[in-house]
């Protein structure tokens, strides 16, 4: 059995997802983003059909191509950086992202630090409000309101989880929909669900999954796609995005009987269940493309005492699939790249900068 | 092969969908709503297990039970009428529905007339604004704004389609989300998509489909459900509703290859494609339940020159399915019943009437 993977650099959907232009000096940018360095398939099975089209034929006895999220995310950040330079040169403005951090959780502090660094690297100005664990809802709302009113702030991100005494839904709803770069506002999700409507922002992780597929030349239209998990932040919006690209979607969750029978029919599987090694090799159709969103800690002898693994039993699946994302280095780096992308989209909209 | 259909009168989901209580004098109300008069299955195969539980065993060589939407809708309208009487007796208020009709389309006039009559029958006060074909957007907006501000109006329905010179999206967005009894506002759809969020209103036709399943005792949780069609007003929200009830959903549409292979796996099929006789007997798993939303005109020798048929090839499917809705008399009567239900929900919310 073989799988054919074709790049489609003219995809309208891709243009919608990513507002920035690709390098004008590289008409074959799709090939570059294939990250050939990490392709594990038998090179004799790979052939170029035309300058803009790459086909990879894989047989089931070869290993899957590794979709190198780290490298693709780096490429995207470079493109964003280029766009921000152009914006600054043309209109003297740069995007601004405000991050609101409540409390002293170490992991949240690390995430916020990473986001600020990523902003700095591409030229986005970052703003921060740091509040104590016992801050009041009013305190927090005051900061959000200030960022809502600040014209140099184009995106606001409230780092989750919040301390328990704060009403998460109420606080997230206070973020202006025009600055909801997380894309979690129900109005954004509603527009994402509806044909003929456009969300202002697409949630970062599912947007990153789709971008990985696009930049790996995986055709989505007309394909069977199965999403494992139906969370508000990944599974559900990932399914909606796949459907917007005209895939036929199925959503598998904890009430699904025999989920492997459904995933086994899929050309594309996105797993966002949060269960280590849930998706086995036997769950996958030969030649399918598998995107692993899971980041699950499992006990390990290393000094830290644990290591991170995905939802996908990688060693099994890479023997069956045509392409698969690793954990770490797959979807993870894309999330922050998409946050930067959403912030740029927001600033471009505000300044009507094309 | 046989199918077991059990009623579950305590379903929390049903309570959410329909705010009104069922008759206190009829502990076996679920049985009554089975509309036994129209069950075509072999009566020897039908047995009662307990007072509140009905099982219908069907073999593939019997004909499917006909889900009698007309009778179920009548039952619902009676329940709504009872609730409105109770509301009027208790707080001296009744729900109000405003219908906005633009232009002189005969079909729209008929729909509006039917809605007003249905309102009158259950005790909902109806209000109407009738505007000419060439009315301006400002005129129309003024009427919507007036109804938005009127505390005796709990639901506003703009009859579609609107004349072409009017911006439908803009006008529908002008309806207060608290009076959006059609449930089409993106904020409602967003909440419908999200776990842990509740829409203010659920779109009437898909809500009617789910209500037909509930009142026919069809279990949804854990079942494979396939929706044919992905429109904003039926297919997509129907899939979201099925998922909220913990079905495993797949959505089939015009880009789906071999749709019959997917529908054939489903325990529940809802077809809302708008294509006459699309769903053949060979598309259906023996024992499945089939809900036909299509209302398609086909040429006929009758005086009118056409007759209305569903998406489902009824004569074929009734030999395979365990239950099926007819066209007409299936989903159609439920839509208007759900409009009345949504208007009642809105009034109850405003008056905090339990």
Task: Record keyword descriptors for this entry.
homodimer, 354 residues, alpha/beta, 6-stranded parallel β-sheet, 3-stranded parallel β-sheet, 36% helix, 16% strand, disordered N terminus
Largest sheet of chain A: 6 strands, parallel
Structural class of chain A: alpha/beta
Shape of chain A: globular
Question: What distance separates the N and C termini of chain A?
Answer: 44 Å
The most extensive contact between chains is: A-B, 35 and 34 residues
Q: Name the helicity range of chain A.
A: 25-40%
How would you write the strand order of the largest sheet of chain A?
3-13-10-9-7-8
Please report the total strand number of chain A as a whole number. 13
Mean pLDDT of chain A: 86
| Count of alpha and pi helical runs of chain A | 12
As residue ranges, the low-confidence spans of chain A are 1-60
The share of residues in extended strands of chain A comes to 15-25%
CA radius of gyration of chain A is: 20 Å
The succession of helices and strands of chain A, N to C, reads HHEEEHEHEHEHHHEHEHEEEEHEH
Oligomer: homodimer
Account of the 3D structure:
The structure is a homodimer of 354-residue chains. With 354 residues, the first copy, chain A, is of the alpha/beta class. Helices cover 36% and strands 16% of the residues of chain A. In chain A, the strands form four sheets. The first copy, chain A, has a six-stranded parallel sheet. A three-stranded parallel sheet of chain A has the order 5-4-6, with helices on both faces. In chain A, strands 1-2 form a two-stranded antiparallel ribbon. In chain A, α3 (69-91) runs parallel beside α12 (332-351), α8 (204-215) crosses α9 and α8 (204-215) crosses α12. The interface between A and B is medium-sized, with 35 and 34 residues.
């Amino acid at each position: 059995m073989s799988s054919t993977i074709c790049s489609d650099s003219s995809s309208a959907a891709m243009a919608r997802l990513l507002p920035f232009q690709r390098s004008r000096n590289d008409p074959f940018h799709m090939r570059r983003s294939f990250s050939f360095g990490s392709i594990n398939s038998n090179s004799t099975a790979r052939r170029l059909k035309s300058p803009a089209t790459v086909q990879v034929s894989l047989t089931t006895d070869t290993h899957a191509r590794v979709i190198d999220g780290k490298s693709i995310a780096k490429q995207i950040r470079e493109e964003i950086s280029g766009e921000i330079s152009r914006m600054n040169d043309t209109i003297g403005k740069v995007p601004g992202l405000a991050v609101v951090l409540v409390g002293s959780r170490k992991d949240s502090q690390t995430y916020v630090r990473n986001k600020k660094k990523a902003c700095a690297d591409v030229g986005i100005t970052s703003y921060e409000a740091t509040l104590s664990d016992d801050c009041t809802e009013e305190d927090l709302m005051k900061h959000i309101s200030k960022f809502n009113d600040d014209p140099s702030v184009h995106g606001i991100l409230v780092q989750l989880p919040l301390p328990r005494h704060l009403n998460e839904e109420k606080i997230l709803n206070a973020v202006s929909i025009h600055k909801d770069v997380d894309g979690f506002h129900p109005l954004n999700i509603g527009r994402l669900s509806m044909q003929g409507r456009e969300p202002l922002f697409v949630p970062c992780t599912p947007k990153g999954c789709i971008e990985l597929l696009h930049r790996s030349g995986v055709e989505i239209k007309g394909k069977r796609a199965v999403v494992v998990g139906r969370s508000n932040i990944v599974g559900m919006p990932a399914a909606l995005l796949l459907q917007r690209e005209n895939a036929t979607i199925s959503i598998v969750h904890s009430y699904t009987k025999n989920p492997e029978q459904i995933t086994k029919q899929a050309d594309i599987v996105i797993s966002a269940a949060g269960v280590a090694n849930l998706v086995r090799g036997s769950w996958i159709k030969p030649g399918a493309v598998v995107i692993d969103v899971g980041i699950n800690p499992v006990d390990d002898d290393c000094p830290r005492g644990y290591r991170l693994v995905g939802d996908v039993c990688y060693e099994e699946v890479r023997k069956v699939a045509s392409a698969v994302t690793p954990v770490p280095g797959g979807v993870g780096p894309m999330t922050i790249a998409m946050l930067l992308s959403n912030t740029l989209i927001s600033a471009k909209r505000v300044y009507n900068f094309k």
